[in-house]
Every structure is written in structure tokens, then in C-alpha cells.
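Researcher: Let's run the pair from yesterday's discussion. Sequence first, then C-alpha cells, for each.
Model: Starting with the first of the pair.
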Amino acid sequence: MKKVFHKIFSSTLALLVLFSTVSFTVEKHYCGDVLVDVSMFTSVEKCAMENMEVLLKMNCCKDEVNVVKGQDELKLSSIEDVKLAPLQFATLYVYTYLNLFKEVEKQPIPFNNYSPPNLVANIQALHQVFII
């Protein structure tokens, strides 16, 4: 069960890194106020008015390009790169030092009022068994 969770978690993190670094472009072509074509991976198809604009010198068609940029730089670090700042170290030292001398709460003794049973006979002397 632990291995399955580990594989799922590592696969999820790998996909997260992949999708955070992917960039893509969305191109849109408008003819007047009407959206003619949208494309993500190929160039957009121009409308028939585009050819006439060259002849008539009117600008009724326009292209809109939206770029969704992914993360370009990934920081790879190792254990040797991890350093505690002196202020963090001092804070941790003071915190642990103060908690070192904290008083422990007094625990209740559950059998404090218990009295042992009365002895009918001294069994050790009766059986002649003595601790030496």
C-alpha cells in the first residue's frame, strides 16, 4: 500500500513539473467583429477579406496572439545547498534551551490510598526461606 501511494505521489509531482513548464500560443483571427478561426498548434486560416484588404487598403481583419508562458527556470538544489540563517539558528537554540528546563506536570498516583492486606502468618519464617 505504501509503494502504491509513493508511485501515485511521485507521478503527480512529475506531471505538475511538466505542466508548469509547458508554454503554448493561442492565435485568433477576426474579420471585423466576427471570430473566424482559433488555433493552438498551427497558424490560423485567413478569411477571404484578407486578400481584398491588400487591394482596397482597408484594415477590417486583425490577428490576436495570446502567449501562455510556462516557467523557464527550475531550481535544482541539493542537501549541501541548504543552510540555516544565523537568526533562525539562534531562535531554535533559545527555544530548545527554554523548553529544556520546563517543569513536568505532577502525575497523579493511582494507588496512593491503597493499604496492603493484613498478614495472617509470616510465610518466610514459616517456610524457613530467608534473603541473604
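Model: Moving on to the second of the pair.
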Amino acid sequence: MDQVQINYGAVGAAALLSFVIGGLWYSPILFAQSWMREAGLDEAQTRSANMAKVFGLSFICSIVMALNLAAFIGAKASLGFGVFAGAATGIGWVAMSLAVIYLFEQRSLRLWLINSGYQVVSYTAMGAVIGAWK
């Protein structure tokens, strides 16, 4: 078996990009109101959360996701393959996994579209960074 080679600069940049996309995606500029409504949350609930913990753990999760994607893509990838691998991961694994959970939890299609859409865009962007970074 070949050794996995990971470009840690690309992983860090990809994780940061995913985190930034999430901040924009779930902001009032895009889907904050729809997401809160569909998730059954209000602004008071979101403000009462320990945001340092939420953001800190979310960033750690972004690093783990980027590391996993980088291991999957490999060191010799191109921008095109990175975009393809990221999109395939976002659509085929993450969005479909969420779909199964949302079906059993009887969550709305709109919530699935918001959350899965973020994952697809995020993984595609991470794949682009990882694939393009030499």
C-alpha cells in the first residue's frame, strides 16, 4: 500500500475556506432565517449557545474533513480531480447520508437542501484547494 502524502498547507487553507463558507451560508445574507425556522430554532437559542465551543469544535471538524479529503484525493491530484472528488463526496456521501437521517427524523426537504447544499459547496471548494495546491 502506498503511503498517504498530505499537503498540510492545503489542508489548513481548505479547512479555513470551509469554515468561512459555513459562516456565510448560515448568515442573514443567505440562509440564517430559513435554517433557524426549519431547524426549530430562534435567535435567542442560537445566542445562548456557547459560541466559542461551537466555533472551536466546528473548526476542528473542518480540519478533520479536509484531512480525510486530502488523503482520499492524494498528492498527485489536479484542480479538476479535486473539484470532482469534493463534489462527489459532498453529494454522494454527505448529502445522501443526511437524506437518510432526515427521512427517518421526518425533517423538511428545505432543511435538507440548506444543510446538504452547504456540505456540497464546502467539500467542492475544499477539493478544489487540495487538488490545485502544489
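Researcher: Give me one sentence on the second I can quote.
Model: The mean pLDDT is 94.
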